[in-house]
């Protein structure tokens, strides 16, 4: 006679040596309610290699009785979910450690960036002051002042002082620039897309863009939509110059 | 007598060798092996039942001793098993199921960020602000451009602008803002750390991280205001919500789940097991420093005392087992020397005869 065979879920592991608890579900027909009901039974199962983890789905096989409650052994592990969990847990602790290091370096970088902008502004302020004294104070050492002014100018690549060009990058200014770009593109989006998808001279550009966006084997309307979204982002470059 | 002696020696040898002890423990029939903490000694706890047997002892006395030993051994095994059963009934969480690991880096970092001077209140960026204030200074100077060549006026204007700048930075310092604003900043940092892409505020790990930050902030409040029942209930709900969110994450992306819980300082059992932030929890984890919240009835008190006594008893057995093992070894040595002496004496007598 063939050996008794079940498939079940490992519900408890690590409490007894070389033994796991496996929950087996069987369906039996209940006469009183005239339908199949699920029966559960927990078996203590011999696990020689101690391979199983909680959550694994395993096939168990009957063996000669080896202790009071143990007469099954693990035949194979069908779904090793529990083992995967254990692996993930191990990987997670390594990843978290690495991440902590990177977060600390990021924090110091941010602090340094702020310090550098503050020194930048302080230099600019001292430049203002030097310029004023250079103009007004005849008794000051003109050579030294001029040298200092030129040093600061060369440090930040400033051509003339006081200058008419913007010297500091402001987030608001960048956004307004983006907005103007965006407005321009929204106006001309139909023309851009038409040119890109119908005219033969832009075929090379189009293919490059599609491979970059990873939509080569998609239908044309979807391609068009994704390319539209790409172009309407002012951070991306427009493939066609208008 | 010979038979009993042989049996004694054989039992002793079996129990003493560590491999056989381990095998016996695995077979689940003998549960009375020593705990893993002092497994290096490998003295079985039943050694506590062993009694010393002098060499010249009458047969009836020996039988008595064996009987006493057996009785004692049975008692020890029963006590150890009962203690184990009670231990399994209330297994503790690996870490605090609300606040998580107290040495968690993530929470420490967020708390440090709130005291960091580079962060400003009301969602202002310090870098931008400093640049804008410099622009304001320049504007004030060019406004009075008629007298730009006047260095005294220039100095006074720059002084005023510097004072303004200092005032703005003081107002926007994190020390001078309210706790709500601090919480907002903490939530923002948590969201940025866990986001999958720019602007991701909804994925399960981000939500869990934000909930964790909120739980920590609310716990700070509750520690100071023990009468705020409404907020205690709110905290309870937050903990449940986080548990639900992480359960979902475990089902759908196990790798991310383990990463998230590790980073938030939680463990798997805090999520999988049933937990309700009740009075027992608040008392056990000393939320309000030794405030008594749960009063035991007389019946419960006696029960708890019995459990304590049982634990003490098992510990005593363990200590006694170690002492007995040494005593027995010494005794055996003495016996062996006496036997050797006797043999030598008898030989001597034979040769004299």
From TrEMBL, chain A:
<dbReference type="InterPro" id="IPR012340">
    <property type="entry name" value="NA-bd_OB-fold"/>
</dbReference>
<protein>
    <submittedName>
        <fullName>37S ribosomal protein S17, mitochondrial</fullName>
    </submittedName>
</protein>
<dbReference type="GO" id="GO:0006412">
    <property type="term" value="P:translation"/>
</dbReference>
<comment type="similarity">
    <text>Belongs to the universal ribosomal protein uS17 family.</text>
</comment>
<dbReference type="GO" id="GO:0005739">
    <property type="term" value="C:mitochondrion"/>
</dbReference>
<keyword id="KW-0689">Ribosomal protein</keyword>
<dbReference type="GO" id="GO:0003735">
    <property type="term" value="F:structural constituent of ribosome"/>
</dbReference>
<dbReference type="GO" id="GO:1990904">
    <property type="term" value="C:ribonucleoprotein complex"/>
</dbReference>
<dbReference type="GO" id="GO:0005840">
    <property type="term" value="C:ribosome"/>
</dbReference>
<keyword id="KW-0687">Ribonucleoprotein</keyword>
<dbReference type="InterPro" id="IPR000266">
    <property type="entry name" value="Ribosomal_uS17"/>
</dbReference>
<dbReference type="Pfam" id="PF00366">
    <property type="entry name" value="Ribosomal_S17"/>
</dbReference>
UniProtKB/TrEMBL annotation, chain B:
<dbReference type="InterPro" id="IPR005290">
    <property type="entry name" value="Ribosomal_uS15_bac-type"/>
</dbReference>
<dbReference type="GO" id="GO:1990904">
    <property type="term" value="C:ribonucleoprotein complex"/>
</dbReference>
<dbReference type="GO" id="GO:0003735">
    <property type="term" value="F:structural constituent of ribosome"/>
</dbReference>
<keyword id="KW-0687">Ribonucleoprotein</keyword>
<dbReference type="InterPro" id="IPR000589">
    <property type="entry name" value="Ribosomal_uS15"/>
</dbReference>
<protein>
    <submittedName>
        <fullName>37S ribosomal protein S28, mitochondrial</fullName>
    </submittedName>
</protein>
<dbReference type="InterPro" id="IPR009068">
    <property type="entry name" value="uS15_NS1_RNA-bd_sf"/>
</dbReference>
<keyword id="KW-0689">Ribosomal protein</keyword>
<dbReference type="GO" id="GO:0005840">
    <property type="term" value="C:ribosome"/>
</dbReference>
<dbReference type="GO" id="GO:0006412">
    <property type="term" value="P:translation"/>
</dbReference>
<dbReference type="Pfam" id="PF00312">
    <property type="entry name" value="Ribosomal_S15"/>
</dbReference>
<comment type="similarity">
    <text>Belongs to the universal ribosomal protein uS15 family.</text>
</comment>
<dbReference type="GO" id="GO:0005737">
    <property type="term" value="C:cytoplasm"/>
</dbReference>
């Amino acid at each position: 006679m063939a050996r008794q065979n079940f498939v079940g879920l490992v519900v408890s592991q690590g409490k007894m040596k070389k033994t796991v608890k496996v929950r087996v579900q069987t369906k039996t027909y209940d006469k009183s309610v005239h339908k199949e009901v699920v029966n559960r039974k927990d078996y203590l199962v011999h696990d020689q290699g101690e391979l199983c983890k909680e959550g694994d789905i395993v096939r168990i096989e009957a063996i000669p009785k080896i202790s009071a409650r143990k007469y099954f052994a693990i035949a194979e592990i069908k779904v090793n979910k529990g083992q995967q969990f254990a692996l993930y847990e191990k990987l997670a602790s390594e990843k978290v450690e690495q991440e902590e290091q990177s977060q600390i370096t990021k924090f110091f970088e941010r602090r340094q960036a702020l310090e550098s902008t503050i020194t930048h502004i302080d230099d600019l302020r001292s430049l203002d002051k030097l310029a004023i004294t250079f103009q007004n104070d005849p008794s000051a050492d003109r050579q030294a002042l001029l040298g200092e002014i030129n040093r600061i100018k060369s440090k930040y690549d400033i051509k003339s002082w006081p200058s008419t060009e913007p010297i500091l990058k402001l987030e608001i200014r960048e956004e307004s620039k983006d907005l103007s770009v965006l407005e321009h593109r929204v106006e001309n989006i139909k023309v851009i897309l038409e040119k890109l998808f119908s005219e033969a001279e832009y075929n090379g550009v189009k293919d490059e863009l599609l491979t970059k966006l990873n939509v080569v084997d998609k239908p044309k309307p979807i391609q068009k939509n994704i390319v539209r979204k790409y172009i309407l982002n002012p951070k991306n470059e427009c493939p066609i110059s208008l | 007598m010979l038979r009993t002696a042989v049996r004694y020696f054989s039992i002793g040898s079996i129990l003493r060798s560590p491999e056989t002890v381990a095998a016996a423990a695995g077979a689940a029939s003998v549960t009375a092996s020593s705990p893993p903490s002092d497994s290096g000694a490998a003295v079985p706890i039943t050694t506590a039942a062993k009694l010393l047997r002098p060499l010249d002892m009458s047969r009836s006395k020996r039988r008595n001793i064996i009987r006493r030993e057996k009785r004692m051994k049975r008692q020890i095994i029963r006590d150890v098993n009962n203690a184990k059963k009670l231990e399994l009934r209330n297994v503790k969480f690996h870490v605090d199921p609300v606040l998580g690991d107290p040495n968690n880096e993530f929470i420490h970092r967020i708390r440090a960020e709130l005291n960091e001077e580079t962060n400003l209140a009301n969602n202002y960026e310090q870098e931008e602000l400093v640049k804008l204030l410099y622009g304001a200074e320049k504007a004030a100077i060019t406004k009075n451009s008629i007298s730009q060549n006047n260095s005294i006026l220039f100095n006074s204007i720059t002084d005023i602008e510097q004072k303004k700048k200092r005032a703005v930075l003081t107002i926007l310092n994190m020390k001078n803002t309210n706790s709500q604003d601090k919480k907002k900043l903490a939530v923002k940092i948590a969201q940025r750390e866990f986001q999958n892409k720019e602007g991701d505020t909804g994925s399960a790990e981000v939500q869990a991280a934000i909930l964790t930050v909120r739980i920590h902030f609310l716990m700070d409040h509750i520690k100071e205001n023990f009468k705020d029942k409404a907020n205690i209930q709110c905290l309870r709900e937050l903990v449940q919500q986080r548990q639900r969110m992480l359960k979902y994450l475990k089902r759908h992306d196990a790798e991310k789940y383990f990463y998230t819980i590790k980073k938030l300082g939680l463990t798997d059992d805090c999520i999988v097991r049933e937990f309700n932030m009740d009075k027992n929890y608040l008392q056990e984890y000393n939320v309000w420093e030794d405030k008594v919240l749960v009063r035991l009835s007389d019946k419960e008190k006696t029960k708890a005392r019995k459990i304590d006594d049982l634990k003490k008893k098992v510990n005593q057995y363990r200590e006694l087992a170690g002492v007995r093992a040494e005593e027995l070894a010494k005794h055996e040595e003495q016996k062996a020397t006496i036997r050797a002496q006797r043999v030598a004496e008898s030989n001597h007598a034979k040769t004299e005869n």
